[in-house]
Specification:
The protein is of the alpha+beta class. Helices cover 26% and strands 25% of the residues. Pfam families: DUF4914.
């Protein structure tokens, strides 16, 4: 099955490795690839993914269980069940702010790269093409994976879109992904490592682990960011949704934020109590619940889930950002599904799919149905916090499959509880309207609060979060996946925000508002309010400068379906358990953190407007100072 080598142009060393391999499978269909996930015996009920590791013997990396609705993949090590935030290494000499391979390991990647190709040449391999960035706007790419890791290749093409060599014709890959799991043990002390080797025309991703998060998912994200930086466009770390109100007003909202910031939740229906009421929050001091009644909520049609393509060819230049999905399938985290009936449409898609799915960190029993709320247990006996399912976007109810113009860009931030007894930065109101300058600053920092379910934390990060501190996920919240420099990404993001001058920018918290535990209720109600305003329009008379300038404007009043939201949810300093002293202490924590993170951007390469915006923050400027640089569109 080496005929494909005649139609694809590969680096000489890669072509040599493939020609030396004695057994290569090029699946003709997704069904053929999926069947290979169960190993040599396609009818097996279980399959252990094992490798011979010098000095360690046979090492099990994962187990695969055949279920009636797909396969359940689980990893013996808790560590392998979510992305290590410190796994990216850069092998080339192109501009980067990320750790270079030679600086971490004391030698160039060239020798390890050749060892990897030599090892692959001795394996039974699967070679599959895919489109990095989705089937419509994506770049032709290639994956080279050991045959016993077929589940990994299946997840990759489910995310990016299955294509064949016949469909692509002759091509030169824009990116290539390689999987070599044993190197995790022989070269990297058991750690997840993903090495990026870039040229102007090729982005290679060497995945030395089998959890798809940092490679098949975010590794491809890295390639898209690299391509976009060279061509002048961004793949945003965002979800987006078309919201249609009961009165048939349509508004498209794009939601950004660090991991755990509510991107998936933006496309989810409001959670209701058994009696139909909505629990907006529960006071952490008095345990008092606060309910509102909403007779009918808006209809949601998801547009994108996580990787939102803002390709230059999509932009009409009319002041609105136009986006499309960068993926053909979604890597959906289902930790918030704890029992049957919490999300009936999504549950049905998982339980009765039209094609078998790939589940991760979810309990699987041979020939039984894999249930999205039965999460695998970690070694401590608790549910794994990062259960996932790869689901084709066509299976998502009412999904929109065409580019959409964005009316409002919201930004979500996980907030701890804040009270007069324990002052923290959790003082953001239910929604704040900000000018582009402040929208840019929040995206530069992308603060990430505690209890993030998606990634592992380093000890220093864990300690900081436990004590009310923050961790910056960085530029646009896609910085963890970028292989370039922060300043280059910041300039590109600023240009995007300024050019979209007919877009409204909003901040919204999740988890807490002052003394109230709110989960994602504030985000859901903000979505409802903005949609009912028609394109997110807000009466300027309803805006008042927030006590903390970084929050822009607070709203004086929010009325949804005739019901007023309690004003203390809009301006938490007026909550009896908070007060102005605790609010100001929290504002200082937040402002000091912003200042400490922003100084790194003040280089000669920073856009002059960006320098002015950062200098306003550093000198404790007012909201008017930000507005003077970038006017507010209301």
């Amino acid at each position: 099955m080496k005929d494909f080598l005649d139609q694809v142009t590969l680096p000489p060393a890669v072509e040599a490795a493939l020609r030396a391999c004695t057994n290569i499978t090029v699946p003709a269909t997704r069904a053929e690839l999926f069947a290979m996930s169960m190993g040599p015996d396609a009818n097996a009920d279980t399959f252990d993914v094992v490798f011979q590791v010098p000095g360690n013997g046979l090492v099990k990396e994962a187990d695969v269980v055949r279920c009636t609705n797909g396969i359940a993949v689980n990893y013996p090590e808790d560590y392998m069940r979510r992305r290590d935030p410190d796994c990216m290494r850069i092998a080339d000499d192109r501009p980067t702010d990320k750790p270079r391979f030679r600086d971490v390991y004391g030698h160039d990647f060239a020798s390890t790269k050749q060892e990897t190709l030599d090892w692959l040449s001795q394996q039974d391999l699967i070679v599959v093409p895919f489109k990095a960035g989705g089937l419509t706007y994506g770049s032709p790419s290639l994956a080279i994976v050991p045959a016993n890791c077929a589940f990994f290749a299946t997840a990759l093409v489910d995310l990016q879109g299955f294509v064949t060599f016949e469909e692509l014709g002759e091509f030169t890959p824009r990116s290539i992904m390689y999987a070599a799991p044993p190197f995790r043990h022989t070269h990297f002390a058991g750690r997840q490592v993903v090495v990026h080797d870039r040229t102007e025309t090729l982005h290679e991703i060497y995945a030395y682990n089998l959890y798809p998060g940092p490679s098949a998912k975010k590794g491809v994200f890295s390639a898209l960011l690299d391509i976009g930086e060279q061509e002048g466009w961004i793949t945003a770390h965002a979800s987006s949704v078309l919201v249609t109100t009961p009165y048939e007003n349509e508004t498209v909202i794009m939601h950004e934020g660090a991991s755990g910031g509510g991107k998936s939740e933006m496309c989810q229906d409001i959670r209701r109590q058994p009696d139909g009421r909505i629990l907006l929050g529960t006071n952490v001091v008095t345990n008092e619940p606060y309910y509102i009644t909403l007779n009918e909520s808006s209809h949601l049609a998801p547009v994108t889930d996580d990787m939102t393509l803002c390709h230059k060819d999509l932009q009409p230049g009319d002041g609105k950002l136009v986006v499309a999905d960068a993926e053909d399938g979604w890597f959906v985290r289902v930790d918030n599904l704890q029992s049957y009936g919490e999300d009936p449409h999504f549950e049905k898609a998982c339980i009765q799919p039209d094609t078998p799915l790939v589940f991760f960190n979810i309990h699987g029993v041979p020939n039984a149905t894999c249930l999205p709320w039965e999460h695998e247990l970690d070694s401590n006996g608790k549910r794994c916090p990062n259960p996932r399912v790869v689901i084709p976007r066509r299976m998502i109810k009412d999904v929109v499959s065409k580019p959409m113009a964005i009316d409002v860009r919201t930004f979500g931030v996980r907030m701890p509880a804040a009270t007069r007894f324990d002052a923290t930065y959790g003082i953001m109101g239910m929604m704040h309207v900000v000018p582009p300058a402040l929208a840019w600053l929040w995206r530069l920092i992308a603060p990430r609060g505690d209890k993030n379910p998606s990634i592992g934390e380093s000890k220093s990060q864990t300690d900081k979060l436990k004590h009310g501190g923050m961790v910056a996920e960085g530029v646009g919240s896609y910085w963890p996946f970028s292989t370039g420099t922060k300043v280059a990404a910041a300039n590109l993001l600023l240009r995007q925000l300024v050019e979209a001058d007919r877009t409204r920018y909003v901040l919204t918290p999740n988890q807490h508002i002052g003394a109230y535990k709110v989960g994602f209720g504030a985000e859901w109600l903000t979505r409802e309010y903005l949609a009912r305003r028609g394109g997110g329009r807000i009466n300027p008379d309803n805006l008042t400068p927030a006590r903390c300038p970084l929050f822009g404007y607070a709203l004086k009043e929010v009325k949804i379906d005739g019901q007023l939201i309690r004003p203390t949810f809009l301006q938490p300093e007026f909550q009896s358990q908070v007060g102005t002293d605790a609010y100001d202490a929290g504002a200082k924590i937040l402002t000091d953190f912003f200042k400490s993170e922003l100084v790194q951007f003040l280089t000669d390469d920073l856009d002059p407007l960006g320098r002015q915006i950062i200098e306003v923050c550093l000198r404790d400027g007012s909201l008017d100072d930000y507005l003077a640089l970038t006017p507010l569109y209301v």
